[in-house]
Amino acid sequence: MLLSFTLLLSGCSSLTVLNPKGPAARTLSDTIIFSILVMVGILAVVYTLYIVILTKYRAKKSNEGYEPPHEEGNKWLEILWTAIPILIVVVLSVVTVKTTVAVEKVPAGYEDQKPLVIYASSSNWKWHFSYPEEGIETVNYVNIPTNRPIEFRLYSFGPITSFWIPQLHGQKYAMSDMLTKLNMVAEEPGSMLGRNANFSGEGFAHMEFETLAMTPTEYDKWVKDVKETAPELKEDEFNKLLKTEHVGRMTFSSNHLEFSPPPAEGHHHGGDANGNMEGMDHNELHPDPATTEESEFDNVPNVDPNKPDPDSSLDESSNHQHEGH
Amino acid sequence: MKWDEFFVTGEPLIYGAMVSIVLASLAILFGLTYYKKWGYLWREWLTTVDHKRIGVMYILCALIMLFRGGVDAIMMRAQTAAPDMKFLDGQHYNEVFTTHGVIMILFMAMPFIFGLMNVVIPLQIGARDVAFPKLNAISFWLFFAGAMLFNISFVIGGSPDAGWTAYFPLASIEFSPTVGNNYYSLALQISGIGTLLTGLNFIVTIMKMRAPGMTLMRMPMFTWAVLITCVIIIFAFPVLTIALLLMLFDRVFGSQFFTMANGGMDMLWANLFWVWGHPEVYIVILPAFGIFSEIISTFSRKNLYGYSSMVLSMVIISGLSFLVWAHHFYTMGQGAMVNGFFSITTMAIAVPTGIKIFNWLFTLRKGRISFTTPMLYSLAFIPIFTIGGVTGVMLAMASADYQYHNTMFLVAHFHYVLIPGAVFAVIAGFHYWFPKVFGFRLNEKLGKLAFWFIAISFNVTFFPLFFLGLKGMTRRTYTYSAETGFGPLNMLSMVGAIGLAIGFIILVYNIYWSTRYEPRDKTGDPWDARALEWSTPSPVPVYNFAVTPKVKGRDAYWFSKKNNEPLSDEKITKIHMPSNTGKPFILGIAFFFLGFFLVFSWWIPSIIAGIAVLIIMATMSFDRNNGYYIPVEEIVQTEQKLRGDTV
To answer: Residue limits of the Cytochrome oxidase subunit I profile domain (chain B) (predicted)?
Structure first.
């Protein structure tokens, strides 16, 4: 029965969360199915006891005049139903900690590849995707190469939002005063829905974006196309865009990181760290020179599997803005 | 402020609400005048310090708020019943789910539980009233002022729209410029002070006013649950008080605690909110556990199984409730180790909760179970709440929560915990203790009909939401397109919601029907129950016990019936009772106006109202009214009248 239940759940591809397209989401899907099986087991025990007791001891003609006994409790039974739940909790705790650590890192098997860094930032009810390496930017859609680790760096130009592509990974908050990171890999080409999961005001329901995973060759071709054909993103245009409530898809051959650095940029520049808090206030955006930042990204040796986060050592010394580690 | 901004305009639904509010108020005023009930209202209710009457007023407010919050719920379900519905716009939907959450938790579940606490606790411990009767009235009127302040927001100035969690910076003046969130902070603040006072009052009552012989380990389980709840209240509510104060400063005085600029931290609000917010869940759930313990024990005609482990598990739950708050935002990026810690503390709560479930099952075992209305709610609680519990463990797993967070799966989970936990409990308690207060039972046939509607419709409404969550539907989403495939399950949920509404209407109709036609109960003990409250006549006279009972063990009244030993052999003497006072009511009004003026930042009126509050409190300090005595003859007469025999 349990087996068929598993098949039913995993075979049900309309349940997005249980229909993963990458290793992180697969780990989460497996965890969820495992936990459902454990819970069904627990429910089965409680429900069996419940039904048996209710049918056997209900008041009926045949037990009229029956005076129930006085029972204080039973030490051994009570120890039993304390110990077994503790064991279950221990097992689930081990699974939880293991999988939580696993999905925070670059997915296993992809550690030796250089991750593609994409900054995903939210403003009003849209998403901006900045590709620092490629020097391009998109709005409300993101294209990624398959079989390559992607490191999304998340922040917000306003209320807390939550970046979520359920078929690739679970969600993480994007906030105005600290950068968070989400590592994922798409293992098959295809279009997937991404969205903000955290309520952020009136237009929240429409805050969706398409995630299109494509083969590396197609991806390179797309980047080249964008570089050649898309317009540049100018600072005043970006400021106007930030204030707009909803827009369709947009593509640019440069990105806003050049004049409006993200919160954790302070890690590299030290002195900028505190100023950046105000920098996130969308009324005054930092007019930083572009070139130093760009080369900064390219030089980050982000591929050492033992050090998944090259920034973490600087975290405490520089300022109080932590990243997700 | 312009006057056309003062009232909410442009919404036909809101115009309808305004008209109905005005008509209802006029009808009440007319009715009171026509039947010459103003004096009665003032003498018997507005100035009362009697714990039973205060309890009744709490429950009456809670029932009205249940309908207000229920209408919100139906509107939300209607808007999402099908793809691209045009019933509510985004802003209106946001206001509706915000008020639904705040009202159901703070102005429905809490006062309902406080009402039952007020009615039952002094009776269960053999006391004449609570330790501080006047303070108790203040608690109620502060709650009432807060509730009214929150409720007028939707016609005057606009409702809060940032969710019941009011996360910053969304709830800041920058992103939420209407006065809605000012109402949120002030209404919760005023009723929160009342809650804190109730917590203190009942701790003192339970610690100091128990009948002779009632040691702590002989207390009924509901009394234990309330004691532990009150301890949680006095530790958790100060956090909310401070958080709301900082919120008010941010919104009204331009401070920057939680804003985006100048070093404000939005995550600080989330932390403070949930440091209060998670224990708050147990503030409504633990009394529910107590109510179920009383009812299950009574209707299986057995003592409660594993009494000591029941108490111990509640103590452990109360401690753990302060160590799990971060599980509400695993996705904030605090790293695997922090999330791991909070996962383990959260799952650990399942252990004491499991102990309670098994103890209830073993209380039923070898019993003689009769399926009365309160018992039906208590029995339905076990399987439904267990689903809420196991999905809670699933949500506690940080990694998996990255996929459940903010989705309908979460919404399904907490309704599966709070409805069978809190709502079934208060309805069960309402049916169970109703005859104690009013002297007649609610009709069983109608009660059972309402129960089946509510229990079945509840599952039809909320079970589909688990699947919607796994399909990727986020909470607080006012619309979705047909391609998402969310339509059919949402429609099913809407059908369930209508069933729930019918169930609650039958429940209220039952109160009306039973008041008119149900036979009066002369025994004072219609359920053949076990705790001290049933040893008094019904309706309970103002002084509760003609003579203070003596307690020799647990289930004191049960054993006094069984062994045919009276609870006390002492003679009736004159009884000292506290006098009524109108000051708590007036204080409530002053607080209401203080809050209202602050919402709109009208400084001069605010200062005047603030001074009025201080003056009323000062005059209370100089009150030298030491109460009055009820003479012996009057007590004897009352007892004879109620019991129909001599004492």
So the answer is: 36-552
